[in-house]
Amino acid sequence: MIEKPGTLYLCATPIGNLEDMTYRGVRVLSEVAVIAAEDTRHTRKLLSHFDIHTRLISYHEHNKIERGPEIIERLLAGDDVAIVSDAGLPGISDPGSDLVALAVQAGITVVPLPGANAALSALVCSGLDTSLFSFIGFLPKHKKKRRELIASLVMSSYTMVFYESPHQIKKTLAELSQAFGERQAVAARELTKKFEEFIRGTLESLGQHFSECEPRGEFTLIVAGQSAERAEGVAPSQVPLVDAVMALIEMGINKKDAIKTIAQERGLPKRDVYQAVLEKSDES
After folding, report:
1. What are phi and psi for residue 66, nearest 5 degrees?
2. Contact, 10 vs 111, CB < 8 A?
3. Coil, strand or helix: which one is 98?
4. Residues 64-83: pLDDT tens digits?
5. CATH number of the domain that residue 66 is part of
6. What is the pTM of this model?
7. Antiparallel, parallel or unpaired: β 7-11 and 109-113
8. Residue where one domain finishes, among candidates 82, 116, 150
9. Which of 219, 218, 182 minimizes the C-alpha distance to 203?
């Protein structure tokens, strides 16, 4: 007789306030065979608070390659498994997404247990446009990849959601301000906790604020899209090709990255954009 596979539950955990834990989440964490946690010591405190005694195993960025298949084998053998991150929804800026991919490939049922999430909590309280938004999360640490990603976002009309640490927030604000120019922005810190705070203004004014007040706590940064700043309401595709490249360069993006960004945005070969810029330079 073939054992029916178990279910993989993605369980949201509080991002600060323990009262945000759901009744369903507590029940499922009590009933599954095992809980895969990003940090077992951190999760053990949560389980202790709710008197949950389910076995914990670690699953994080540094052991996911070995541990992922082990968890899939357990699920295929019939065990139900819950995965949790340190805070919020697993699978958002953590290796939970890799485990979900493995589970889907193996034909295992994946069930979400909704709950607290820093990105959406900050977005809905930001006062900025929520009809279209992009979740960026943490920017790459590698300088070149970081610069390329920021350049690719300059012309986006979507509101953007970033995660940042207190040690990097000033640097990130400076980089975004240089690339994006004067944009409305909101820095949300310590969400759902005692010192929850929303600092509203522009990228430049937020940078000034944190130069005077030392950043504390984890940050979710909400930044307005390009459409909110466009005086004439001209769509990016209507802006002349060379003008679009020059606009990025004027914002602090180097020529190579500016050409690459506009080429991707317009669906053109990079060499065609480069040639257009070169011909324009020859005319000047």
Report:
1. -85, -45
2. yes
3. helix
4. 999 999 999 999 999 999 99
5. 3.40.1010.10
6. 0.80
7. parallel
8. 116
9. 182
Q: Are residues 149 and 189 in the same domain?
A: yes
Q: What is the largest CA-CA distance in the chain?
A: 79
Co-location of 88 and 39 in the same domain? yes
Assess whether 128 and 166 both reside in one domain.
yes
> How do 159-164 and 133-137 pair as beta strands?
parallel
Cβ atoms of residues 131 and 155 within 8 Å: no
- At 187 the three-state DSSP class reads strand
- In this prediction, residue 232 carries a pLDDT of 46
- Tell me the CATH number at 160: 3.30.950.10
Judge whether 58 lies within some domain. Answer: yes
pLDDT category of residue 105 using cuts at 50, 70 and 90: very high
H/E stretch holding 72 reads helix 64-76
Residue 2, in any domain of the structure: no
Do the Cβ atoms of 228 and 235 come closer than 8 Å?
Answer: no
Strand positions, DSSP E, the chain: 7-11, 34-37, 55-58, 81-84, 109-113, 133-137, 159-164, 184-189, 197-202, 219-223
Band of the pLDDT at 246, cuts 50, 70, 90?
Answer: confident
In this structure, what token pair is assigned to residue 223? 């930044």
The whole domain housing 73 covers 7-116
Same domain? 148 vs 187: yes
